[in-house]
From TrEMBL:
Region (Disordered) location: 1-22
Name of the molecule in the record: Nuclear transport factor 2 family protein
Pfam families (alphabetical): SnoaL_2
Domain SnoaL-like: 42-149
Length: 183
């Protein structure tokens, strides 16, 4: 069987070849990689929307930074799974029906050093049934498919107010000190 020359379609496609053996070009590989990372991020947010933080926890590398800015029960910096896992459990207790709607995702870099930004809006109910929402951005750094840094940027004034309301309505976790790494 003859190998197509440059510019001829690869077998089974109408895509022109970038070489004589239908190997994707570097630009095509980058596009595929960005697509894979974006799908993984969308799937992680879909899991959170289902109340399942397991896939998110599994995405973290052994050395990780997990930061949520502000002065409230969800704030603080964590670097170990023994503080990150309880943080997600607390998130579920204080905002049990939290749902994210992704506005956009931007992915740059290669597998050894990737930056991704996820712009979102969220919705949730207070214990008394009142609906609230916020907006923000997750800034992530990945290395070889694992998250090594997650920083959450949102309207922390809105969130702090929501947590005060939840605490006043009897959600004890909403009034606790932030979960941070043990000293």
């Amino acid at each position: 069987m003859a190998t197509p020359g440059p510019g001829a379609p690869c077998a089974g496609t109408s895509r022109p070849t970038s070489s004589t053996n239908c190997v994707p070009s570097e630009g095509e590989l980058r596009m595929i990689y960005r697509y894979v990372v974006e799908r993984k991020l969308r799937n992680a947010f879909a899991a959170l929307n289902r109340g399942d933080h397991g896939p998110v926890l599994a995405s973290f590398g052994p050395q990780v930074e997990h930061v949520f800015f502000g002065d409230h029960a969800l704030a603080g910096a964590r670097h170990h799974m023994d503080s990150i896992e309880p943080w997600y459990a607390r998130l579920r207790r204080v905002l049990p029906d939290l749902r994210f709607d992704i506005e956009s995702i931007v992915v740059r870099g290669m597998p050894w050093n990737t930056v991704a930004l996820v712009e979102w809006r969220d919705q949730f109910s207070l214990k008394n049934g009142a609906r609230r929402g916020n907006q923000g951005v997750h800034a992530l750094r990945l290395k070889w498919g694992k998250v090594v840094s997650l920083r959450v940027y949102c309207d922390t004034q809105v969130l702090a107010g929501v947590l005060r309301e939840q605490h006043a309505l009897g959600v004890a976790d909403a009034g606790l000190a932030p979960i941070v790494d043990a000293a």
